[in-house]
Amino acid sequence: MxxxxxxxxxxxxxxxxxWMWFDxxxxxxxKTFAWINVAAVIIGFWVFYGATSVASLATWFQVLNxxxxxxxxxxxxxxxxxxxxxxxxxx
Length: 91
Fold this sequence. Notes:
The chain is an all-alpha fold. Helices cover 77% and strands 0% of the residues. The protein contains three helices and no strands. The chain has helices at residues 2-21, 27-50, 55-80. The protein is elongated and about 45 Å long. The relative contact order is 0.20. This is Integral membrane protein. Keywords: Membrane, Transmembrane, Transmembrane helix. The chain crosses the membrane at residues 6-22, 34-51, 57-80.
């Protein structure tokens, strides 16, 4: 289980970063990816601390979990940056 979830999360991370990077202005997409990343982070930490770890992947799994936390924060920023209606426009 540990290895399978690691590889699923790693593939999701790569797809997520590539898709996010090429569509930064799509706020709905950023919000969707951010919330999916929250689920991925919860699952990732749950598996990391709950399943029998594989020594060679343990460090990388932990790094992947924390990088997903940072990525989710960035996606929340891009998804909700104009949500409060305070977009600044100049004349």
